[in-house]
Specification:
heterodimer; A: about 150 residues; alpha+beta; 6 helices; B: about 425 residues; alpha/beta; seven-stranded mixed β-sheet; about 35% helix
C-alpha cells in the first residue's frame, strides 16, 4: 500500500507542494486566464509574459491539492526561459506522460522534476489535477500569440 | 454504544459488497453513503428476478407478462407511498432522480398560468446550503421569468439563519425550496416551521429530501396541513435502491394545476393531430417507458428500510455520528463544518484537516480501503460561505460500525504523519 502511495507522492512532489516555485501573480503579462476543475473545485489564475519568442515569466495564484500545486510549480520551473516552441514541446511531452495510463517512460532530459508525475498517470482521478495549470498555460500562451498576430 | 442497530452484523451480511477486499488486502470501509448507498441482496434479487421472469413493458402489453410487470411497477408506487406516508399513492411520481424531480417542478412552474404563474417582481426563496440541483433550476426559472432569487444565509455553526425570515418570506414569495438535511453540513432544517410560514403568504413549498429520506422517518400524513410541504423529492440510490429512479411526491391540487412536463406516450388521455388531452396524476408526469426495473428495485429497497424501521436507523446514524464527531475532535487540526451535536444533524460530516488537501486525504484513506468523498460535494456556495474551497466528507449509514469510524480516525492520523503536518 505504501509503495503505491509513495509512487504517487514522490518526495519531489511534496517538496514543490510545500515550497512552490514562482508563485504569485506578477507584472508584466499579456494574458491572464482562470481555469477550474469543476469536479473538485481546484482553481488557478495564471499569467503569461512572452518577450521575443521566449517565455519570460509564468506567474500564478492557485488553490488545490498537492498534485495540482506541485505540477504548477514544476511547470513554471520548466517553462520560464524557454522559447515558446520549446515550451510547447515540453507541454506536449508532459501531456503524453499524463495520458499514458502509467505506460509511458518519462524523459528526464525534457521533463526534469516533471518525471515525478509518472506515478500520477496511474490514478485517472488525479490526472486532471496534474494538468490543470498546464492547460491554463497553453490557453494563456495561445491568447498572447493570437494578440501578437492580430 | 447506545442506539446502534441491535442486529448490525446480520444487516451487514445483507450487503454483499461489504465483503469486498480492496488493493493491499484491506477490507472495504465504505463511508460515502451520502453520495450513494450500498444495496442489499433483496434489492439485487428483486431486480434480477423481474428481468429473468417478468420482463415486459407496462400499462400497454395485453399479455400475462405485461400485467405482471405493470402490477410490480404499481406495487412499487404503493410501497414508496407507504414509505413517506403519502396522503395518496397517486401523488407519487417516478422520475429519473431527485435532480429531474426538482427540474420538473421548476420547469412546469415556469410554464404555469393562473395562481402558480411566476413573473417579474415575484420571488423564489432557497437557502445557501442547497445542493447545486436545488439552486440551478431556480436560477434558470427566475432568469427566464424576470423573477428574483433570494436565499436564507447560514449561521457560523452551519444552521439556517432565520433571523430575517420576515424580510425573506413576503407577499412576493411564490416558491420556497429547501433541503431537509444538508448533504454537506449535515444540518437538519426545521422544514415544518418554514413551510407553515411560507404557506401564510401562499407560496409553494418544495423540500429536497434526498439526504432526509435515507435516515429520518417521513410521515407526510402526520404533518399538519400548513406545515406539510407541497412537494417532496428524493432519489432512489441513497435509500439502498438502484440509480436511475427518483421520487416526486406532490399535493394533488398542485400537481393537477401544474402543466405537463415531458410530452409522449403514457401521459396522454387522447391524441389527435391537432391537440392532446392529458392523463391524470401520476401518469401525467410519466411520459415514455419509465425505469421499470429500477422502480421495482426501489420498492424492495424502501420495504427493506421499513422492515428495519426508520426510527431505529435514525438512532443508529445518530450514535455513529456522535462517535465520529468525538473521533474527529481527537485528531489535531480537524475542523468540522456544520453543527457539532449529533442530535441536530444527519450522518454526513464534512471536515478540514489543517495542512492536507481533501484530495490528498481521500487518496491516502483510499490506499487503506476507506472510501470518503473529497471536493465541494455539489455545494460550492455552502463551502464559500465558510471560506473553504473543498472538504473531506465521511458519511455513514445503517451498515456502518464503530470499528469503521476507528479505521477512519487511524487513517487520518496516518495521513497527518504521511504529509508530515503538526
Amino acid at each position: 500500500m505504501d509503495a503505491a502511495l509513495d509512487n504517487l507522492y514522490q518526495e519531489i512532489i511534496l517538496d514543490h507542494y510545500k515550497h512552490p516555485h514562482h508563485a504569485g501573480l506578477r507584472d508584466p503579462f499579456e494574458a491572464e486566464v482562470h481555469h477550474v476543475n469543476p469536479t473538485c473545485g481546484d482553481e488557478v489564475t495564471l499569467r503569461v509574459h512572452l518577450a521575443d519568442g521566449v517565455v519570460d515569466d509564468v506567474s500564478y495564484d492557485a488553490v488545490g491539492c498537492s498534485i495540482s500545486q506541485a505540477s504548477t510549480s514544476v511547470m513554471a520551473d520548466l517553462l520560464i526561459g524557454k522559447s515558446v516552441d520549446e515550451a510547447m514541446q515540453i507541454h506536449q511531452t508532459f501531456l503524453e506522460l499524463m495520458q499514458g495510463k502509467g505506460k509511458v517512460d518519462p524523459d528526464e532530459d525534457v521533463l526534469e522534476d516533471g518525471v515525478a508525475f509518472a506515478g500520477v498517470a496511474k490514478f485517472p482521478a488525479r490526472v486532471k489535477c496534474a494538468l490543470l495549470s498546464w492547460m491554463a498555460w497553453k490557453d494563456a500562451t495561445a491568447q498572447t500569440l493570437s494578440k501578437e498576430n492580430s | 454504544m447506545d442506539g446502534l442497530l441491535p442486529e448490525l452484523e446480520v444487516i451487514r451480511k445483507d450487503f454483499p459488497i461489504l465483503e469486498r477486499q480492496l488493493a493491499g488486502g484491506f477490507p472495504l470501509v465504505y463511508l460515502d453513503s451520502a453520495n450513494t448507498s450500498q444495496k442489499p441482496q433483496i434489492v439485487i434479487d428483486t431486480m434480477v428476478d423481474h428481468l429473468e421472469r417478468h420482463n415486459a413493458n407496462i400499462s400497454r402489453a395485453m399479455h400475462q407478462l405485461g400485467s405482471e410487470s405493470t402490477e410490480a411497477f404499481e406495487a412499487a408506487r404503493d410501497r414508496v407511498a407507504a414509505f413517506i406516508k403519502a396522503p395518496s399513492r397517486d401523488e407519487v411520481i417516478f422520475t429519473k432522480n431527485a435532480t429531474e424531480a426538482l427540474n420538473l417542478v421548476a420547469n412546469t412552474l415556469s410554464w404555469a398560468t393562473g395562481d402558480l404563474a411566476i413573473g417579474a417582481g415575484d420571488e423564489v426563496l432557497i437557502t445557501e446550503m442547497e445542493h447545486h440541483s436545488n439552486i440551478v433550476p431556480w436560477q434558470l426559472l427566475t432568469e427566464r421569468k424576470g423573477a428574483t432569487l433570494r436565499w436564507f444565509g447560514l449561521t457560523e455553526d452551519g444552521r439556517l439563519d432565520l433571523s430575517n425570515i420576515d424580510e425573506l418570506i413576503t407577499e412576493r414569495t411564490k416558491v420556497v425550496s429547501l433541503t431537509w438535511v444538508s448533504n454537506m453540513l449535515g444540518t437538519i432544517n426545521p422544514v415544518a416551521e418554514i413551510a407553515a410560514r411560507a404557506h401564510e403568504v401562499g407560496a409553494v413549498v418544495v423540500v429536497d429530501a434526498s439526504q432526509a429520506a435515507p435516515q429520518l422517518p417521513i410521515d407526510l400524513q402526520a404533518m399538519e396541513g400548513a406545515s406539510r410541504p407541497d412537494v417532496l423529492v428524493f432519489t432512489g440510490h441513497k435509500v439502498v435502491g438502484p440509480t436511475g429512479i427518483g421520487v416526486l411526491w406532490g399535493r394533488r391540487e398542485v400537481l393537477d394545476a401544474l402543466p405537463a412536463f415531458h410530452g409522449g406516450g403514457e401521459m396522454i388521455e387522447t391524441v389527435t393531430m391537432q391537440r392532446s388531452t392529458y392523463a391524470g396524476i401520476p401518469h401525467k408526469f410519466e411520459a415514455g417507458t419509465p425505469p421499470i426495473i429500477e422502480a421495482i428495485g426501489l420498492g424492495a429497497a424502501v420495504d427493506y428500510l421499513d422492515c428495519i424501521g426508520l426510527d431505529a436507523i435514525h438512532a443508529h446514524e445518530q450514535a455513529i455520528t456522535g462517535y465520529a464527531l468525538q473521533g474527529l475532535a481527537s485528531v489535531p487540526g480537524t475542523r468540522v463544518l456544520g453543527p457539532l451535536d449529533a442530535a441536530s444533524r444527519g450522518g454526513a460530516i464534512s471536515f478540514e484537516l489543517a495542512g492536507v488537501h481533501p484530495h490528498d486525504i481521500a487518496q491516502v484513506l483510499d490506499s487503506r480501503g476507506i472510501a470518503v468523498r473529497a471536493g465541494h460535494h455539489c455545494a460550492k456556495p455552502a463551502h464559500a460561505r465558510f471560506g473553504v474551497q473543498a472538504s473531506t466528507r465521511m458519511s455513514s449509514y445503517l451498515y456502518t460500525t464503530p470499528a469503521e469510524i476507528d479505521a477512519l480516525i487511524d487513517g487520518l492520523n496516518y495521513t497527518r504523519a504521511y504529509f508530515k503536518v503538526g
